[in-house]
Amino acid sequence: MKFSLRPQEGAFYEMFSRAAQNLVRGTELLSELALPGADVQSVSERLAEVEHDSDKITHELYNRINSTFITPFDREDIYRLGSQLDDVMDHLEAVGNLVYLYGLTKLPALPREMIEMIDVLDQQAKVTALAMPRLKQMKGLKDYWVECNRLENDGDRTYRMLLVRLFSGEYDALTVLKMKEVADELEAACDAFEHVANTIETIAVKES
To answer: Does the global pTM surpass 0.90?
Structure first.
């Protein structure tokens, strides 16, 4: 493996930005599930393609870490941030896949709270993507992690309301089990976005 002594900063930041943009693509695809007559199979397949691209970016990042002697900041933090961005994408892809496999769009409509959770995820994805270019200068990041954490709290509240609805007797037992699994993936994605924000806060504090 060719080993570089130079801190190829641009490459790392560019990969973080690409990974974050994929998260925006992922949440935008999930948002299609709220549309009347949504092609759920198409959404699931396109999410799988975005998730595959995210995996490639993550492997590229790991290879870059292992072949660069001097990194722009702590290599463990670089590894952690790349891994956490990939984790978010895995949860988003799982949501689309489960909704398709379980045939949940055959219901008259997905629960309003489920759509609201997807909207929270979309907002988290967008603020994360906007924050990535600022990582290079380590400026203007506090507003990002504060907002991302606020959104995660919104997601938690919506998740609890979704559980109340699922166990209200509105749905049959099998449908509840299916939707509970989707809800758990949505909640895990919200948490995963918060983990990204917390890691960026840690990096910013170390580099300040």
So the answer is: yes
